[in-house]
C-alpha cells in the first residue's frame, strides 16, 4: 500500500514538473518568435513607423475652444476614423471626385466648385511654427527666441513634406484650363504652367537628402482648411483702429504707452484673426489712375494727426472731400523738377529711367519724388519708417505709388544685398552716423556695387558733417558731389559705392572689417545688421559684377550669373499668355480700376513682367521658405521683398487693388498654426472692391471659397479640372 501510494505521488509530481517545463518552453519559443518577427518584419509594423503615422491625426483649423483675441469661433466636428483597404479603392475615390467637379463657369457670374471635401481625411497637424523663421538656417539669428538644432531639422523636414505632397501639382495644373468657357484662351497652361513649380521643387529637393525626400513625398498631408469649420468674425480693437498694422503697431488699447509702434517688428503672440474696421466715414471708391496722382479721397486716409500736418504743407492741400497734390510742388523749395535736374547736373552718369531704374526712397516725406521719377520710367519704392505717425506712406499707396512700412533700427531690411540702383534720403531724420554707422552699413548692403546714395538735408552742424565724412570714408564711398542748392536751400551730397574690393585693402584702419566668407549678405528675415562690409563680387559668374542693361531691355535680359535662362524665358512667355488671354479678358475685372498689385508668391517676376504694359505696379513677394529669387526680380528692373505669410505684411490696410496667389496655400501646409490668418491678412490689405486671383488645388480652393463667402466676398469665377483650380473673388465693403 505504501509503495503504491508513493508511486502515485511521484507520478503526480512528474506531471506537474513536466507541465512547467512545457510552459517554459512555449514561452521561450514565443519570445524568440516575437524577436525574429520584429527584426525581419516590414517597416510598416515597426514601432517607429507607427509613431510617424500619428502625424496624420490633425488639430484642424476649427479646433475646439475659442480664440479670445481673434473674434473667430471655431466649431470642431467629430473626427471620422477610417482606413482604406487598398490603394485601388483610393484611386476610385479620386476618380469619382474628379467626375463631380464643375468644368467651368462664365465670367462675371458667381460659380461654385463642387464641395467634395467630405471624402478628404483629416490631415496632419498644422505645425505651431515660430514666426521668427529665418531664410537660411545657421546663417540668420533669431532674436528673442532661440531654437534648438533639432527644431530646425524638423522644420526642414516639414518643408520637404509640403513640397513632396505636391509632386503632382504641375501635372494636374498643366491641364487646368485646356477646356471650359469661363477662362478664355488659357490653353497655354498645358505647356507652361508647371515651369515655376518644377523650378521650386528642384531647388528644394537638392537641398536635402534624396532618400529622405522620397520618403517624405510618400507622406500625405491633410486638408489645409477644415471644410466643416464655421467662422464668425469680429472687428479688431486696437489703438490704431482702421490703420492697424500687426507686427508694427502696438496692439494694446489701454495703458499709458508713449509709442504707437514697436521699435522692431514684433508680431502678436496669438494669431490675428480679427477684421480691421473701415475708416469712421467709410471707404469710398478710390480715385482711378492716373487721376489719383493729383487727388485722393480724404476719408480713405483719415488720421488724427493728418489734418494738422496738411495745414503746414504746400505739396498737399485739402480741397473739399479730396486731398489735392499740386503739380511740381514738394517739401523742397523750388519744386521737385529742379531738384531732379540738379542731381543730373552734379552727376551726369545718373540717367533716370535708363541706368537708374530701381530706387529706394528712405523715409517718406512726400510722394513728389516718387511721382516725378515714375514719369521718367523709374520705379521708386517708398520705405515708410515705423515712427511715421502721420502715415505718409499710406498717402503714397492711395495715390498709386509703391510703398512698404518697416522699422529701421537693429535688423536688416527685408531685401537682398546689392539690388537697388540708387538710395535716396531727403530730410528723412535718420542719424546715419550714430551707433557706429550701423544703419549706413545696411544701406551699403542693399546698394548695388557702383550704386548711388543721394542725401539731401538742411544745413547740418559741423560735428555731424565731420562724423558723416569720416564714416563714408571708412566704408570707401566716393563722394561725387557736395553742393548747397540756393533755390532749394538744402545741401545735396551724392556718394557712390565702390565696384571692387581693391579699395578696401587700401584702408589704414580696417574698421569696419570685412565680413566673414560664410556670412550670407542676403539673409534678411529677422537677421541683425552686421557691423562689417560684405565683399564685392569679383567673378563674372557672381551677381553684381556687371551693371544691368538699360530699361526696358533690362526686363527681358538675363545675365550670365542666372542659371536656367531658357526656363526663365519660357516662364515669361507662359505668364504673358495667361495674362493676355485670361486675366485681362476672361475674369470680368475692370483693369482701369487696378493700380496696386501684389504677387503673393512670386518666383522670377514673370507675372509682373507680363503686366509691364499695363498701368500697374506689382509688389513681388517671395516667401522666406522658398528659393531666393528676389535678386532676379530686381535684376529685371522690378521690385520684390521677403515675407513669411504666417505673419502680417508690412503695409497699411486697404493698400492693394488686386492680389495674385499661384499655389501659395499648398506651399504653406504645416507652416502656420492657423492658415486662415493668410485669408484674414488678404482681407486686411485688399481694398473694398479689390480682386483676388487664386490658383491652387481644388481640395484647397473648395474650403477657401467657403471662408471667402463667410467674409462676404463675391465669388466671380471658379474653375476646376484634374485636381487643379482657379478662383476669382471680389472683396466687398462688409464689416461685422
TrEMBL record:
It is found in: Endomembrane system; Membrane. It holds the Pfam family Methyltransf_29. The chain crosses the membrane at residues 20-40. Its EC number is 2.1.1.-. InterPro entries: Put_SAM_MeTrfase, SAM-dependent_MTases_sf. It comes from the Eukaryota. It comes from Coffea arabica (Arabian coffee). It is a single-pass membrane protein; Single-pass type II membrane protein. Residues 65-185, 199-222 are annotated as: Disordered. It is an enzyme of class 2 (transferase). This is Methyltransferase. Coiled coil: none annotated. The keyword Transferase applies. Residues 75-99, 113-150 have a biased composition (Basic and acidic residues). PANTHER family: METHYLTRANSFERASE PMT28-RELATED (PTHR10108:SF1102), SAM-DEPENDENT METHYLTRANSFERASE (PTHR10108). Keywords: Glycoprotein, Membrane, Methyltransferase, Signal-anchor, Transferase, Transmembrane, Transmembrane helix. Belongs to the methyltransferase superfamily.
Amino acid at each position: 500500500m505504501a509503495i503504491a501510494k508513493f508511486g502515485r505521488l511521484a507520478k503526480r509530481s512528474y506531471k506537474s514538473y513536466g507541465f512547467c517545463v512545457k510552459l517554459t518552453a512555449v514561452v521561450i519559443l514565443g519570445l524568440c518568435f516575437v524577436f525574429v518577427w520584429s527584426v525581419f518584419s516590414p517597416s510598416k509594423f515597426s514601432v517607429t513607423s507607427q509613431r510617424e503615422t500619428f502625424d496624420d491625426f490633425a488639430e484642424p483649423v476649427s479646433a475646439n475652444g475659442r480664440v479670445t483675441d481673434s473674434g473667430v469661433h471655431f466649431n470642431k466636428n467629430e473626427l471620422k476614423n477610417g482606413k482604406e483597404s487598398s490603394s485601388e479603392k483610393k484611386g476610385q475615390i479620386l476618380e469619382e471626385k474628379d467626375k463631380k467637379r464643375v468644368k467651368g463657369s462664365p465670367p462675371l457670374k458667381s460659380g461654385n466648385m463642387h464641395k467634395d471635401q467630405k471624402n478628404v481625411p483629416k490631415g496632419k497637424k498644422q505645425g505651431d511654427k515660430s514666426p521668427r523663421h529665418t531664410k537660411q538656417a545657421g546663417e540668420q539669428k533669431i532674436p528673442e527666441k532661440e531654437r534648438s538644432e533639432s527644431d530646425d531639422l524638423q522644420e526642414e523636414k516639414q518643408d520637404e513634406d509640403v513640397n513632396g505632397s505636391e509632386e503632382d501639382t504641375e501635372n494636374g495644373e498643366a491641364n487646368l484650363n485646356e477646356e471650359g468657357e469661363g477662362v478664355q484662351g488659357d490653353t497655354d497652361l498645358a505647356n507652361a504652367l508647371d515651369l515655376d513649380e518644377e523650378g521650386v521643387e528642384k531647388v528644394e529637393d537638392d537641398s536635402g537628402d534624396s532618400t529622405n525626400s522620397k520618403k517624405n513625398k510618400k507622406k500625405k498631408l491633410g486638408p489645409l482648411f477644415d471644410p466643416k469649420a464655421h467662422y464668425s468674425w469680429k472687428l479688431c480693437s486696437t489703438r490704431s483702429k482702421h490703420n492697424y498694422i500687426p507686427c508694427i503697431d502696438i496692439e494694446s488699447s489701454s495703458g499709458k504707452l508713449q509709442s504707437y509702434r514697436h521699435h522692431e517688428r514684433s508680431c502678436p503672440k496669438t494669431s490675428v484673426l480679427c477684421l480691421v474696421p473701415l475708416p469712421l466715414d467709410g471707404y469710398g471708391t478710390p480715385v482711378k489712375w492716373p487721376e489719383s496722382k493729383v487727388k485722393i479721397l480724404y476719408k480713405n486716409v483719415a488720421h488724427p494727426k493728418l489734418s494738422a500736418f496738411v495745414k503746414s504743407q504746400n505739396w498737399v492741400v485739402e480741397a473739399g472731400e479730396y486731398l489735392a497734390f499740386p503739380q511740381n510742388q514738394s517739401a523742397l523749395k523750388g519744386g521737385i523738377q529742379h531738384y531732379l535736374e540738379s542731381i543730373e547736373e552734379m552727376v551726369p552718369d545718373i540717367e533716370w529711367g535708363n541706368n537708374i531704374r530701381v530706387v529706394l526712397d528712405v523715409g517718406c516725406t512726400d510722394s513728389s519724388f516718387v511721382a516725378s521719377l515714375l514719369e521718367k520710367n523709374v520705379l521708386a519704392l517708398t520705405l515708410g519708417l515705423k515712427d511715421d505717425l502721420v502715415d505718409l506712406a499710406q498717402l503714397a499707396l492711395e495715390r498709386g505709388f509703391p510703398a512698404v512700412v518697416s522699422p529701421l533700427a537693429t535688423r536688416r531690411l527685408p531685401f537682398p544685398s546689392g539690388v537697388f540702383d540708387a538710395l535716396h534720403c531727403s530730410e528723412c531724420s535718420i542719424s546715419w552716423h550714430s551707433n557706429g554707422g550701423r544703419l549706413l552699413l545696411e544701406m551699403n548692403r542693399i546698394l548695388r556695387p557702383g550704386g548711388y546714395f543721394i542725401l539731401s538735408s538742411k544745413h547740418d552742424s559741423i560735428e555731424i558733417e565731420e562724423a558723416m565724412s569720416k564714416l563714408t570714408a571708412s566704408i570707401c564711398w566716393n563722394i561725387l558731389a557736395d553742393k548747397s542748392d540756393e533755390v532749394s536751400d538744402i545741401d545735396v551730397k551724392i556718394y557712390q559705392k565702390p565696384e571692387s574690393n581693391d579699395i578696401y585693402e587700401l584702408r589704414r584702419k580696417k574698421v569696419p572689417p570685412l565680413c566673414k566668407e560664410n556670412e550670407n549678405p542676403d539673409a534678411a528675415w529677422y537677421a541683425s545688421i552686421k557691423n562689417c562690409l560684405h565683399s564685392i563680387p569679383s567673378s563674372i559668374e557672381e551677381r553684381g559684377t556687371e551693371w544691368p542693361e538699360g530699361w526696358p531691355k533690362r526686363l527681358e535680359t538675363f545675365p550670365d550669373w542666372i542659371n536656367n535662362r531658357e526656363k526663365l524665358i519660357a516662364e515669361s512667355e507662359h505668364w504673358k499668355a495667361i495674362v493676355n488671354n485670361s486675366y485681362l479678358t476672361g475674369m470680368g475685372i475692370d483693369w482701369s480700376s487696378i493700380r496696386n498689385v501684389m504677387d503673393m508668391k512670386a518666383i522670377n517676376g514673370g507675372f509682373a513682367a507680363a503686366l509691364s504694359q499695363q498701368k500697374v505696379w506689382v509688389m513681388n513677394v517671395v516667401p522666406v521658405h522658398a528659393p531666393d529669387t528676389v535678386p532676379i526680380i530686381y535684376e529685371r528692373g522690378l521690385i520684390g521683398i521677403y515675407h513669411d505669410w504666417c505673419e502680417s505684411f508690412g503695409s497699411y490696410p486697404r493698400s492693394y487693388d488686386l492680389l495674385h496667389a499661384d499655389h501659395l496655400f499648398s506651399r504653406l501646409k504645416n507652416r502656420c498654426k492657423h492658415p486662415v490668418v493668410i485669408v484674414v491678412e488678404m482681407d486686411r490689405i485688399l481694398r473694398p472692391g479689390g480682386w483676388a486671383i487664386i490658383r491652387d488645388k481644388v481640395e484647397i480652393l473648395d474650403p477657401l471659397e467657403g471662408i471667402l463667402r463667410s467674409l462676404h466676398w463675391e465669388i466671380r469665377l471658379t474653375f476646376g479640372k484634374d485636381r487643379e483650380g482657379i478662383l476669382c473673388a471680389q472683396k466687398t465693403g462688409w464689416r461685422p
